[in-house]
Amino acid sequence: MLAWNRIASVVVLACAVTARADDPKPAAKTDAEQLQGVWLFDGNRLGEGSSLGLVWTSVVTIKGDTFSITKVYDAAKPFSGKFTLDPAKKAIDFKLDEFDLTPEGMPLKVPVCSLPGLYKLDGDTLTVALEFDLAGKRPTGFGSRKKRDAVLTLKRAPKDFTAFPKDITVKAVGPDGKPVAGAIVAGYMHQNKGEMEMTDRDGKKLKVNVLTMTPDEVEKLLAKLTDSWKGYVKNILEPPAGTILDKATGWSYHKAQKTAADGTAKVAFEKLRMSPVIVRDTERKQMGVASVTPFGLLNGEVAVKLQPEVRVTAQGTCDEITKAGVKNDDHFGCYIQTASG
Predict the structure, then answer these.
(1) Distance between CA atoms of residues 338 and 341, nearest Å
(2) Nearest to 287 by CA among 251, 242, 332
(3) What digits encode the pLDDT tens for the residues 64-102?
(4) Model pLDDT, residue 334
(5) Residue 198 contacts residue 208 (beta carbons within 8 Å)
(6) Which of 13, 101, 136, 185 could bond 106 through an S-S bridge, CB–CB 3.0 to 4.6 Å?
(7) Would you list the DSSP string of 288-307?
(8) DSSP track, 244-264
């Protein structure tokens, strides 16, 4: 009897397994179904540069064939419209509602219009390529860098997402992985020229280094200068709050603070809207730069690994400056960044 019971049990189990194997598998979701829900920006490239700051606190909601994007340019009214998909060609066509930024004090008004684009879905990542032009053509890929080309990268928001973090903990670690105390955390840094040539009120040329002057020497210099040069000098020597100035080297760090003993510093999420996270250990001559995104900061932390710093020099040319008759000894500021920021 015991043997028959065992045989019966095996037969029942086999039948159950066969029944489960024959159960129909749930149908794969269509692209339109996968798009439904809430998305956050992880990239927003326009031409060669990043425009993430324009959508830093934006939330994208897709419901049916409609979408809305909050806080574009920090506008009170959402950017909205409808879309249609061609899954076979991975084409997406937007019909945009009017978007008027005049109430926000900006001379920009997008009329009701259509924009053809491309899209690709990779799990919880959505990438959209567009050409921001009322007569724009559908892009042929996601790698173009023309001035009006845009590539939007979105990540699906976690189910528990309610808001972006208020503050971000920046943690600086050295090449050995250990915390770095006393490192400067900044959003922007630049080096003031040492000896500079200025023009006084009488048109006389003066060669001075304001970083090595005593307070009395600075006061005497300011009395001789035109208002524009006076403001320039004061901006170097009396920078805005949150600026760290190293007179010995001429480097100034803006939106800056130093890491604590555990290698961390708190930075407001909003302050990272237009800036990377720059960390520099001036004593060890090590630094690191982290390009951040709203989605990437959801956990409230960013780690920056420092490496031995190097100086990279490059020669830049600008046809417009040449046309304007600017001389070789004049100088101007510029930024050099990768496509990722």
Answers:
(1) 5
(2) 251
(3) 999 999 999 889 999 999 999 999 999 999 999 999 988
(4) 60
(5) yes
(6) 101
(7) EEE---TGGGTTSEEEEE-E
(8) EEETTTTEEEES-EE--TTSE
